[in-house]
Design a protein that fits this description.
Elements lengths: L2 H8 L5 H12 L1 H4 L4 H8 L3 H10 L5 H12 L5 H12 L4 H19 L2 H12 L4 E5 L3 H12 L6 E3 L5 H7 L8 E5 L6 H12 L3 E6 L12 E4 L3 E3 L2 E3 L1 H17 L1 H17 L12
Parallel strand pairs: 1-2, 1-3, 3-4, 4-5
Antiparallel strand pairs: 6-7
Length: about 290
């Protein structure tokens, strides 16, 4: 249950002071996501103790957990203009370069701590056994889908990256999904309804769905047989996909290890073809 739903569910039984805080958060969650205890108390005209009790009664052990929950909700609802304003506000006390890079480092660490290795291994096993692999990621997630598709094509015979077109055309590309196939759906805030609907279709056709997303509140978790979580956040209007790309790397390496002999053979054949057609620059060592 997201933080806004919790507030709405408990609103009727709140004290007067708690309702003041609740009203502010409901109406200005984008601002509340950036406020510490003292700032939220000052803005709503209540004591800091009241703010702390409010977050505790909603089930959050610390105020920071409550604030994080507001932020997780906010990032799925904000438009790009709001995202840019909030992103720059978060960086105002730190240089952009250090702020963005330190934030990305934290995201990779958080992803490592929240990743269920057993779930990851089960997803790898399901993908390795698939007759056909579909990959869908739209918007900024299309970069992840293309990256994953490029490398899985070096491992498997039938990998299809679903292109970014209308909902009906996406489903047309997935028309032949069966119970022998795996569909990898990649979606991060703001979640794509086209991706969600495509995964629902794949599920209805008996396909195995591997979701790659940012958390249990993501709409694609409801459809996924296996769900791989990677911390994503927004830096101004830009989606930070460093942690998801790192997770994709791990997935590719694990799948390559599971089919090591096939990968070795495929790469040997490709190297011969690439050399014949001069795909890569051939440096003459004598000229160096």
């Amino acid at each position: 249950m997201d933080v806004i739903t919790k507030i709405e569910k408990n609103y009727e039984h709140m004290s007067k002071g708690h309702k003041v805080i609740a009203n502010f958060v409901l109406e200005h969650f984008d601002q509340a996501a950036l406020m510490n205890v003292s700032r939220l108390a000052e803005t709503t005209g209540v004591s800091e103790a009241t703010v702390v009790r409010f977050s505790t009664e909603l089930g959050y052990e610390k105020y920071q957990h409550f604030q994080r929950a507001i932020w997780e909700y906010a990032k799925t609802k904000l438009n790009n203009v709001q995202r840019m304003n909030i992103g720059f506000a978060r960086m105002e006390n730190e240089g952009i370069l250090s702020s963005v890079l330190n934030s990305d480092i934290d995201k990779i660490r958080s992803t490592l701590s929240q990743t269920d290795e057993n779930e990851f291994n089960r997803a790898v096993s399901a993908i390795a056994k698939a007759r056909r692999i579909y990959i869908i990621g739209l918007g900024s997630a299309s970069a992840l889908a293309s990256f994953l598709g490029y490398y899985l094509n070096l491992i498997f015979d039938d990998v299809r990256v679903v292109s970014s077109v209308g909902v009906s055309e996406i489903i047309d590309q997935m028309y032949h999904v069966t119970g022998e196939d795996v569909v990898i759906g990649i979606s991060f805030p703001r979640y794509s309804n086209r991706t969600v609907n495509a995964l629902k279709y794949a599920k209805s056709m008996g396909g195995t769905v591997v979701g790659v997303t940012d958390g249990p509140m993501s709409p694609i978790t409801q459809t996924s047989d296996f769900c791989l979580l990677a911390r994503s956040d927004m830096e101004s209007f830009v989606d930070s996909l460093v942690a998801p790309f790192s997770l994709m790397n791990a997935l590719i390496v694990a799948l390559g290890a599971s089919k090591k002999d096939e990968v070795y053979k495929n790469l040997e054949n490709l190297e011969s073809i690439w050399k014949e057609y001069k795909k890569y620059d051939q440096v003459n060592k004598e000229e160096i």
